[in-house]
Amino acid sequence: MSKHHRGHDDGHGHHHHANQFTDMEARVKALETVLTEKGLIDPAAIDAIVETYETKIGPRNGARVVAKTWSDPDFADWLKRDATAAIASLGFTGRQGEHMRAVFNTPDTHNLIVCTLCSCYPWAVLGLPPVWYKAPPYRSRAVIDPRGVLAEFGLELPGAKKIRVWDSTAELRYLVVPERPEGTAGLDEEALAALVTRDSMIGTGLALSPEAAR
């Protein structure tokens, strides 16, 4: 297992750690509490909206990138050489995704993404980061014991398969291109995109088989 790491900060030389609320998060939490107490919002409804953006709307962008990569060799080559430009060509760009690198899973190597110092995440491609991605236990253990972390996600990899951990930074974020599932030769890009999960693009899961996606 190798680890790619770059120091990262907020542009002013300060590191951000997610062990406690930032000022903005604290303000949002306080506002949510007040509005809930006044009966103006339903916390369950907010949780449902956040879940939708975390697992459905946001990751669809990345799923389209992966599906095109699987079906278009020229695009796959472009993504390897210049992921930022290739992804932007599909209309997915903006803050938190200005500089991207795509890492490809192979039969020999599995890639896993983490941000050890804070929670840098490619919002433009994957939507909102899941809560566990920002949690200190994942951020520390993904580097120390990636195989054990993957097992906790239900992903048991062969002992001979290497696991490479990539550390996202404020300057560079990553997208995992999972291996294309077997039995998908006749599927178009829309059908292929339906097989790509958020976790498979972080590296904590695999793409779905056509049977599992039904």
Automatic annotation (TrEMBL):
Residues 23-204 form the Nitrile hydratase alpha/Thiocyanate hydrolase gamma domain. GO terms for molecular function: nitrile hydratase activity; transition metal ion binding. It is an enzyme of class 4 (lyase). It catalyses: an aliphatic primary amide = an aliphatic nitrile + H2O. Its EC number is 4.2.1.84. Fe(3+) binds at residues 115, 118-120. The keyword Hydrolase does not apply. It holds the Pfam family NHase_alpha. InterPro entries: CN_Hdrase_a/SCN_Hdrase_g_sf, CN_Hdrtase_a/SCN_Hdrlase_g, CN_Hdrtase_asu/SCN_Hdrlase_gsu, Nitrile_hydratase_asu. Signal peptide: none annotated. Keywords: Iron, Lyase, Metal-binding. It comes from the Bacteria. NCBIfam families: nitrile_alph. Belongs to the nitrile hydratase subunit alpha family. This is nitrile hydratase. It comes from Rhizobium fredii (Sinorhizobium fredii). The lineage of its organism: Bacteria, Pseudomonadati, Pseudomonadota, Alphaproteobacteria, Hyphomicrobiales.
